[in-house]
Write a structure and sequence with these properties.
The complex is a heterodimer of chains A (210) and B (252). Chain A is α/β, with parallel strands linked by helices and 210 residues long. Chain A has six helices and 14 strands. In chain A, α1 crosses α6. The chains are: A alpha/beta (210), B alpha/beta (252).
C-alpha cells in the first residue's frame, strides 16, 4: 500500500509520515509534492500547520489543486488541522478562498471567550481536549468516547451542512473538530501528536474502506 | 474541557540527558529517547528539551536526538537552547520538533519572534522568559542564567512578544528555580492574566501541591518540572492524579 503525504513546504510533515509508518510498517509512506504520485497513491493525507493563506498559496503554487481534488473523490483522504480548514469554502484568516470541497467557513475564536470561572480563554486553543463523536465512523473504532486529542489552532471549521460534522469539541463554544463525507475524513486536532488515541485513528485510516 | 498540561523538561548536553543538583554537578542521566518514552508512557502531555550543549561543534547533536525521539514518541515536542535565527527554528522543526523556544535571542532581537512566527506560524514559537522579582509586584527579565538584568519589565515583555507573534510563553522564576519552594505564583498570575496566549509555569516545583497551585493560584495553562520527575520522586501519572483530586481537568 502506498500512502502519500502531501508536501507543500509548510510545517512538520515528518511527524505525520513517522506516525503513519509506525501504525503501518508494511506500507510505503511518501512525502511528495508530485501530482502524479498522488494519483498513484492508495491513500492521501493533507497535513497543515501555520497560517491558512500561506498554506493555500504554497499549495496552489505547487499545482496540487487538481490532484488533491481527484484524490478527495476517489480514495481514502485525510486532512489534518490546516489540511482540514483548506477543504472549506472560505477562511477568515487572510480572507482566503479554500478548495470548496466542504461547504462552510473557517472563522476565528473570539478572544472574549471565558471559562466557567470567568477567566479568559486563551487563543490559540492549545492542548488536549475531548472529542465527542456525533455518529459512529470507522475512524473512531477502538477509541474511547470523549477521548482527548492534541489541538493547536486559532481558527475553526463551521460546516454549512450539519451532516458533514462527525465530532465536536468544547472550547468557549462547541465547534466541529472532525468532518466526514464519503471518502473524506478531516480533523482539526493532530492525530500524529495525540499519543495512543491518535495512533489508533491513523491505524483506522490505513484500514478504512469507504 | 481543555486539560491543563504537565510537561517534563529534559536538559540535554551533547546528546545525553543530564541532571544537575543545584546546577553544580552535572551527572549523566541517560538516553533522551529512552527517557522521553518513559514520560510518554506515564502520560506526559508534551516534552521539552533544553539543549545546554556549550560547544558549538556539538550543536547539531540535538537535531539527531529530536529525530530519534520524534520517530517513537507521538506527543508534542518543544526544543530550546541556542536558537539564534530563523534557520535554527527551521532545522529543529524539520528534525521533528513541534515548537521551538527562544530566550536570549528574542531579547537581543525581538524582530526574530515576528520573523520566525511569520515563517512557521505562531503555534511553533515559544518565548522563554526568565524573570526575577525586583520590587513587590514587579519582575524584570534576566538572561545568562539569571546573572544579567535586561531591565525589561517581565509583564510588558510578555505582552510584547505575544503581540510580535509568540504562540506561548514559558515563564521561569529565577528566584524559585532549583529551590523546590514552589512557583512564584504572583509572577505566574500577573503574566497569565496579562496575555491572551497560553503560559507555562516553571521554576521551583518541589512537590505535587506546587504543580496544582501553579494552575489554580497562578492560572497557568501548563506546568513544567524537571527534578521531581527525574529523580523518581513522582511519576507524571501521580502528578495528574493529584491535580485531578484538586478539581483540575487533566488527561488521564
Amino acid at each position: 500500500m502506498k500512502i502519500a503525504v502531501v508536501d507543500y513546504g509548510m510545517g512538520n510533515l515528518r511527524s505525520v509520515a513517522k506516525a503513519l509508518e509506525h501504525v503501518a510498517p508494511e506500507a510505503q509512506v511518501i512525502v511528495t509534492a508530485e501530482p502524479t504520485q498522488l494519483d498513484a497513491a492508495d491513500r492521501v493525507v493533507v497535513p497543515g500547520q501555520g497560517a491558512l493563506h500561506d498554506c493555500m498559496r504554497e499549495f496552489l503554487a505547487r499545482g496540487l489543486r487538481d490532484a488533491v481534488e481527484r484524490a478527495s473523490r476517489s480514495k481514502p483522504f485525510l486532512g489534518v488541522c490546516v489540511g482540514m480548514q483548506m477543504l472549506f469554502d472560505h477562511g477568515e484568516e487572510g480572507d482566503t478562498a479554500g478548495l470548496g470541497l466542504i461547504g462552510g467557513e473557517v472563522p476565528k475564536f473570539s478572544s472574549a471567550m471565558t471559562a466557567g470561572d470567568g477567566s479568559h480563554l486563551k487563543v490559540p486553543h492549545m492542548g488536549w481536549n475531548e472529542v465527542e463523536a456525533l455518529r459512529a465512523h470507522p475512524l473512531f473504532d477502538g477509541i474511547a468516547p470523549n477521548a482527548r486529542f492534541y489541538f493547536v489552532h486559532s481558527f475553526y471549521c463551521a460546516p454549512r451542512d450539519a451532516a458533514d460534522a462527525v465530532a465536536r469539541t468544547h472550547y468557549g463554544i462547541a465547534f466541529t473538530s472532525a468532518v466526514a463525507r464519503d471518502n473524506i475524513f478531516a480533523t482539526q486536532f493532530h492525530p500524529e501528536k495525540s499519543a495512543a488515541a491518535g495512533l489508533q485513528l491513523l491505524a483506522n485510516f490505513v484500514r478504512w474502506k469507504p | 474541557m481543555l486539560a491543563k498540561r504537565i510537561i517534563p523538561c529534559l536538559d540535554v548536553n551533547a546528546g545525553r540527558v543530564v541532571k544537575g543538583v543545584n546546577f553544580v554537578e552535572l551527572r549523566d542521566a541517560g538516553d533522551p529517547v529512552e527517557i522521553a518514552r518513559r514520560y510518554d508512557d506515564q502520560g506526559a502531555d508534551e516534552i521539552t528539551f533544553l539543549d545546554i550543549t556549550a560547544s558549538s561543534d556539538d550543536r547539531d547533536i540535538i537535531l539527531h536526538v529530536v529525530e530519534q525521539v520524534a520517530e517513537q514518541v507521538f506527543i508534542p515536542l518543544t526544543v530550546g537552547g541556542g536558537v539564534r535565527e530563523v534557520a535554527d527554528v527551521r532545522r529543529l522543526l524539520n528534525a521533528g520538533a513541534d515548537k521551538v523556544s527562544m530566550n536570549t535571542a528574542a531579547v537581543n532581537n525581538p524582530q526574530l519572534v515576528a520573523d520566525a512566527s511569520g515563517k512557521v506560524g505562531s503555534q511553533c514559537i515559544v518565548v522563554a522568559i526568565d524573570a526575577k522579582q525586583v520590587a513587590p509586584g514587579k519582575w524584570q527579565v534576566f538572561t545568562h542564567g539569571g546573572r544579567k538584568n535586561t531591565g525589561l519589565d517581565a509583564i510588558e515583555w510578555a505582552q510584547r512578544v505575544a503581540a510580535l507573534g509568540a504562540g506561548e510563553i514559558l515563564l521561569t522564576s529565577m528566584d524559585r528555580d532549583g529551590t523546590k519552594n514552589g512557583f512564584d505564583l504572583g509572577l505566574t498570575r500577573a503574566v497569565s492574566d496579562a496575555v491572551s496566549i497560553p503560559v507555562i509555569a516553571s521554576g521551583g516545583v518541589g512537590n505535587l501541591r506546587h504543580l496544582a497551585d501553579g494552575v489554580t493560584e497562578g492560572r497557568a495553562d501548563a506546568v513544567l518540572a524537571a527534578s521531581i520527575f527525574h529523580f523518581g520522586q513522582h511519576t507524571v501519572r501521580e502528578a495528574k492524579e493529584f491535580m485531578r483530586s484538586q478539581g483540575i481537568e487533566v488527561r488521564l
